[in-house]
């Protein structure tokens, strides 16, 4: 048998090591999505939407983690940004209705909608402003908004389309606002 | 003599690969591999062992690309990794030679995993120490040492001038190492 070419072997091993490192980050993303789903199950009513959103979040975090760079940084920032919309609705109901929202069974209540929209907007502003400072603002912002929206929808999505729209619209509007303000400040 | 090494391109490729750009992996490998092999041959002598060291170093480097700090010089990082792979190989060979000479150790006995674990930790610490020491030097000293170990085209500098610069750079490297770690 002919001896293998050391350069080809080195190239193959190096590429493999690179992909293994990225795959392990993707796995960490899946684990993180699992942790967030458990947190959402503890805080909110479970619906079929919860599982769909949790699955989408796991796929998104795995893909963004595997892609690396600004996509990965954005995904992590987005998960952190998605925590307030994930937690805030249960806090609001705990403070206002003793932890119970009778209307939430039928759909998003107005309180729910405004909580999702409000927290989504606030964290969107932070994400947009933070994205401008990144080396690759576009990928960072896209990944951050996507993962923040999915994290927030673990809570807001369980109340129906209204809650889901609340967090997504809030994040988009907040993100664009934060981006524009940060760009203006940078060019002033 | 090799073509002039484009250090800026190397930094760019490493940064791009660290950011997940797979297209940068091939040119990065092509630029680094011959340098690392040549450098390892100089360090260990045996071309077979040198290739193994260079291979381990480049695998380690590619596995850690996502942690690449773009403020640092890419080639310095790569050479530091191969340096410590060579040192580890030399130490391993010495230990193996010592074991072969020791009549109490049976032939073909497996190495102690605890020793190898300690060696890995020591290796990591040494890499950090080497990078930290190199970073205390001026840009020209780092450039001179790199040119010397990579055999890059240095036509712009007269040989005598280069030798003098290298001598000074190595002296400063030794002084810096001693001031930090006591011995060399």
Describe this structure as you would to a colleague.
- The complex is a heterodimer of chains A (188) and B (184).
- Chain A is mostly helical and 188 residues long.
- Chain A has six helices and no strands.
- Chain A has helices at residues 6-43, 48-67, 69-96, 110-132, 137-156, 161-187.
- In chain A, helix 3 (69-96) runs antiparallel to helix 4 (110-132) and helix 4 (110-132) runs antiparallel to helix 5.
- The mean pLDDT of chain A is 84.
- Chain B is an all-alpha fold.
- Chain B contains seven helices and no strands.
- The longest helix of chain B is centred in the middle third of the chain and has 28 residues, at 74-101.
- Chain B is globular, with a radius of gyration of 18 Å.
- The relative contact order of chain B is 0.11.
- The A-B interface holds A 6-7, 9-11, 13-18, 20-22, 25, 67-72, 135-136 and B 17-21, 25, 29, 33, 51, 54-55, 58-66.
Entry keywords:
heterodimer, A: 188 residues, mainly alpha, flat, B: 184 residues, 0% strand
Number of domains of chain A: 1
- How would you spell out the order of helices and strands of chain B? HHHHHHH
Structural class of chain B: mainly alpha
Range of strand content of chain A: under 5%
- Which descriptor suits the 3D outline of chain B? globular
Mean pLDDT of chain A: 84
State the end-to-end distance of chain B: 31 Å
Q: How many helical stretches of chain A?
A: 6
Q: What are the segments of chain A in which pLDDT stays under 50 over at least 5 consecutive residues?
A: none
Helix content of chain B: over 70%
């Amino acid at each position: 048998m002919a001896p293998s070419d050391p350069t080809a072997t080195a190239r193959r091993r190096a590429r493999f090591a690179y992909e293994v490192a990225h795959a392990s980050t993707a796995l960490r993303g899946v684990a993180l999505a699992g942790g967030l789903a458990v947190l959402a199950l503890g805080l909110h009513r479970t619906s079929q939407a919860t599982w769909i959103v949790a699955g989408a979040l796991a796929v998104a975090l795995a893909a963004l983690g595997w892609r690396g760079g600004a996509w990965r940084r954005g995904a992590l920032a987005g998960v952190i940004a998605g925590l307030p919309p994930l937690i805030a609705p249960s806090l609001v109901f705990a403070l206002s209705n003793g932890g119970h929202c009778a209307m939430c069974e039928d759909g998003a209540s107005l309180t729910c909608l405004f909580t999702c929209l409000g927290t989504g907007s606030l964290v969107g502003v932070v994400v947009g402003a933070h994205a401008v400072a990144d080396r690759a603002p576009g990928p960072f912002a896209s990944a951050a908004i996507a993962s923040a929206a999915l994290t927030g929808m673990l809570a807001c999505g369980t109340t129906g389309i209204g809650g889901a729209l609340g967090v997504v619209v809030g994040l988009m509007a907040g993100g664009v606002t934060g981006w524009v303000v940060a760009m203006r400040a940078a060019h002033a | 003599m090799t073509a002039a090494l484009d250090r800026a391109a190397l930094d760019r490729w490493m940064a791009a690969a660290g950011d997940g750009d797979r297209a940068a992996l091939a040119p990065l490998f092509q630029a680094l591999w011959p340098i690392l092999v040549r450098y390892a041959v100089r360090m260990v002598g045996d071309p077979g062992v040198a290739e193994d060291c260079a291979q381990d170093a480049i695998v380690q480097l590619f596995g850690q690309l996502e942690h690449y700090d773009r403020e640092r010089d890419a080639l310095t990082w790569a050479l530091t990794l191969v340096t410590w792979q060579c040192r580890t190989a030399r130490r391993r060979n010495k230990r193996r030679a010592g074991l072969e000479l020791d009549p109490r150790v049976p032939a073909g006995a497996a190495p102690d995993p605890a020793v190898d674990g300690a060696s890995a930790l020591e290796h990591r610490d040494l890499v950090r120490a080497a990078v930290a020491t190199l970073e205390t030097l001026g840009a020209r000293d780092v450039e001179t040492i790199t040119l010397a170990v990579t055999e890059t085209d240095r036509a712009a500098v007269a040989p005598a001038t280069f030798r003098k610069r290298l001598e000074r750079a190595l002296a400063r490297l030794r002084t810096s190492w001693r001031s930090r770690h006591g011995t060399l």
